[in-house]
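Exercise (ungraded).
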Amino acid sequence: MLHIKCPHCGIRSQNEFSYGGDATVKRPELNKEVTDQEWDNFVYNRVSPRGKHLELWQHLSGCRQWIKVERDTATHEIFNTYKANEEIA
Amino acid sequence: MTQSYRIETGGLINRNKKISFKFNGTSYFGYEGDTLASALLANGVHLVGRSFKYHRPRGFFGAGVDEPYAVVQLYRNGETEPNIKATEQELFEGLEASSVNCWPSVNFDIGAINNFLKIFLPAGFYYKTFMWPKSFWYKIYEPFIRKAAGLGVASTKHDKERYEHKYEYCDLLIAGSGPSGLASAYSAAKNGAKVILAEDKPRYGGSLLTSDVNIGNQSGKDWADGIISELKEMPNVTVKNRSQVFGYYDHNMLVMSEKVSDHLPKTKKYHPNKRLWYIRAKEVLISSGSIERPIVFGNNDTPGVMLSSAAKEYLKVYGVLVGKKPLVFTNNDSGYETAIEFKKHGVEPIVLDSRSNPQSEIIDEAKNLGINIKNSYVVVAAQGYKKVKSADVATISEDKKTLGKIENINCDCICVSGFWTPTIHLASQSGNKTKFNEEIDAFVPGVSKQNETTLGAANGVFTLEETLKTSFEKGKELSKKITEKNNEVSIPNVVEKKYSKHDKFWCVPLPKGKSYKRFLDFQNDVAVSDVEIALKEGYRSIEHVKRYTTLGMATDQGKTSNLNGLQLVSEIENKVVPSVGHTTFRPPYTPISIGAIVGREVGKHSKPTRKSPIHNWHEEHNAVFVDAGVWLRPRYYKRGNETLFEASKREAKNVRTNVGVCDVTTLGKIDVKGPDAAEFLNRIYTNAWLKLPVGKARYGVMLREDGIVMDDGTTTRISENHYHMTTTTAQAANVLSHLEYYLQLVWPELNVNVVSTTEQWAGAAIAGPKSRDLLQKLFPKTDVSNEGLPFMGYVEGELFGVKARIFRISFSGELAYEVNVESDNGRFMWEKIIELGEEFQIQPYGTEALSTLRIEMGHVAGSELDGRTIPYDNALEGLLSKKKDFIGKRSLQRSAFVAEDRQRIVGVIPLDKRTSIPEGSHLVKDANAPLPNKKLGHISASCWSVEHDNPFSLAILKDGKNMIGEKLFVMSPLKNKVIPVEIVSSHYVDPKGERVRS
Ligand SMILES: [Zn+2]
């Protein structure tokens, strides 16, 4: 079970969180023309990297904030966690 | 029965307390502190089971967790448990156990015929032998294997025992209470660290319980006892025996199984049987010791052949002789310790040492005691079927290839020592890259991945002095990192004997003309010849060899067999062991009961049960409840002998003719507040929300980004910046997360807050033509006329002093209202509605009638919004705004979603107007078409229409728009039904929707 540092609450067990997928995907702006390919990429197409991955988690049974977690998908090492709108260097 | 193998004095058992027990129906006795194994051995019982494949007689091989043979079925307090190691099971009064793998009995076993047919059961026998002819599998092979194999039978009864889970945090978790565990725990604890010390056995001390050493002027055992009692007194230390750390998971989380009650005749009241500890440790110290490995020779599975260290443990801990004419067969000095113990108790051992001229302190001691030692000697084969009677022995050449003349020595047990294998399972599970240590011919931990350190024998360090020194230092060093303290403890002096080098010899060659089975894996009956066959057949990877031969796959997970298997593969393949590599170690280290893993999450405890504040009233009025997610909702209110069908029809009919009331507290409710709330709803819902006035409700549909309907419900504008959103009962939690996702991540600029208010409000739906009359009685001061409170209107009112929200919304299709009051007033509201509704013939209605009402109206619910349908499929395309963008809108342009013959909701009526249509049935054009018959759609919901008094269903049907009037067939292979049906509009009652506005 992972140990995830919620930027709002501190270190908590994985069972307080729910996984939310790739955090680098950006929703196309509303009312903007998008091609089929762009839309498909947003809705369906995801890379599945081995290694560092920025992903979304929600602290569901805690502060309910969506956070970003930089995690190694192979070793499960967590390098850093960020608030939803924190700038990521 | 007399305990003819128990020595007069000695051991750590309590001779003042006799304990009686039964094995295979025979009564015996042992002492408090015995294991089932030690008590049986004290009684001279060596035959405990049959082997898995050949059903060869099986005795005891070890004295603990590594035991491959003595697996029994245990009976305790009216329960039975399979797969119990007799070497771990502590004796308790009234214990009953029986052999497994034996049919019909341990002494006469029909499966032993396999032993004589073993030519047919070589490596890969699962894959080869029983594959042909195919028709034999179900009728002949499978039942036979089932009857003759297995490691016991799981109980089919409900498990009455209680299992607990516990979460714990500590600075240092130390697995194993041998010398390294004790020393590191002591120095870390003295340095202020929060320590958990876990020992899987009942007694602390590990090897100190059986080794002849002194630590600081005390015996090793006395020193261990002293340290343990001091640790137990310290507030920062938790010491746990009977507790096996069996799994090492991510981020330094370890799981430990504590056997709380297994050693007792019966679990104490309010105590668990087992407790599973989830421990998050800053640092982990693995002091799990080592396990002696066997030397492979002919018939080395005969009862009476056992590990030399086990023989010593039975003698020193339990005062039990495993034999009276012991032969010790060793390639290192450990065997001499066992021989010396025998000698001290008046038993004459013979030592066979594979080395030609070993010299060391302990060998000198054995010589001085007059022990018969034969150098360059090996056991070629054990003789005897159900028990060792003698051993064929021979000299062996220096290169270990040539045997001398075979002699026969009388003996009743053979104690084998092939040197020591560090227990590296936990380190390996943590991701440690293990490495092969040529010095000891075994793998040891290498580079750590997590915060884990392995100490002592588990790290391949076999001298006590070095073990204690490094362990004291490590305990200090690691605790200092955490506590930043610097308390020093002095390292005691150690007196131990010096050992000479072991012999890199592990397998006795077969003498010419002999074909003895030489076993590697004792539990799974894997012999040297099986691995040879696997390699001949082309299996190369050690993982493949393992699976093909089942080497190391049994419940003991190859604790005694893995390294010898690797040695064999490396020898045949002409590779060094490290390049063969070991198979992956996975948790659990030793079998863990399913009950312990499940813990308290069984039955009604597996999820919370949510009840509305009106629940007790429903109970008092004969409600029959149904699970709706985690909620309990009344399904119907039973009158007399009514069936579900009769009651729901009565309740639904009464709504259509008079008035009914339904508890709708379970509906999800979310408060949406803030200056941008309208804009937010406008983006989330498919329809327009910017112009909804205060005091009005609107029905809305929200989509996922892929265009699939996520949920529906009404949202009401309570005040300028305050909206009250409702969701379906099932989707409430998902919808809240969905809203939070967009507010926090996508549109953080919107000034909106959302919060669940589901539990703050109790809700009652009042529906039927007389509902307005009743509402007026409930709220005499409020104008509830069609003008004062029109359809989709909202007012606040006062219900006999209680503040209430009144929504004019309808799910039933009738004139209807929903009244919400604060939860605590829920029952008050409900009773007032019932009381004042009496004159209007009010009846409460449950979910079954609720479904009937919505189905015949063609209102969609969860069975249509099933995660596979878009708005068009549910005839909701009128709610799709063309003017604005919303979540999921772009996906609705997908070609499949705009196809001319897209699926769509329809109504279905059986042609005979009598036959009920099973939900989930398929719609087909031709009932007699060959299989697979093309499916055109499926029945999503069915009811008995109370308006038309015949069955009516909703279906999602391909090209539903153009199918009205078509005749099709409903097919349910499950219910074995074929029903001719007609497709009609989904709006079966009041298609123009006049009643809700009346
Ligand atoms: Zn949090």
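Further reading is listed at the end of the chapter. For now, observe: The first helix of chain A runs from residue 36 to 43. Residues 51 and 74 of chain A are 6 Å apart (CA to CA).
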